[in-house]
Amino acid sequence: MTPPVALTIAGSDSGGGAGLQADLKAFAAQGVFGTSVVTAVTAQNTTGVTDVHVIPSGIVEAQIAAVLSDLPVAAVKTGMLATAELVTLVAEHAAAGDLPNLVVDPVLVSATGHRLLEDEAIDVYRTELFPHATVITPNLREAEVLVGRDLPSTDDARAAARELAELGPRIVVVKGGHGGGEQAIDVILTAEGEHELVAERISTGNDHGTGCTFAAATAAGLASGRDPLAALQEAKRYVTACIAGSADWELGRGHGPLDHLGFTA
Asked: Is domain 5-246 in CATH 3.40.109.10, yes or no?
């Protein structure tokens, strides 16, 4: 059987834990053939990002055209887009209907605090890209930047999801993995109402790439024909299993990677 195809438009993580490397592993684990468009090359490892080289927009455009002209892409996930110019480029393709089942993970900063997006690109996300998204998946820190205030509680996350929904995406997910408490609670807002994805928080420092992985797994579910809520529920289950699998790994001196491929299953 020919597998479904998904596309990630994202940055490269030289440490292999996040970015398009995590996306491709998540696609494969979900039985989806992964394709990629590289938007930036980062020099990073588990301790942080030391340098970033943004790919010229013409090369990004050529990669998008090459993939879409030949392969039957059924879902698209965006990660690090780095500049307002690249956000606009992707938004133009989305507006033209080129990017089906679009999952937008608005990567603004790394887990170690390194800025991965130009300030002026934030408004471009809000006005040009979000209106064409099937799902947007900001984490709490990113949602705080997007709405311009702190979100200390789940109720605050729900309010932020409602505000972000006004920008046009079909579904908003505010991921709660960076919050406190014994449970990791993701808030979901759809046209039909509000939902929550709840998992017990796993005590581990190996959590690099959780956001990328969740968004990629969601895109994989959409590419496989799942409805959005089912795709999100499966993505939550998958990410939780990835975290549990690598909880005791000793890879790197910082935030270690996830067990995308079930090495410890």
From this structure: no
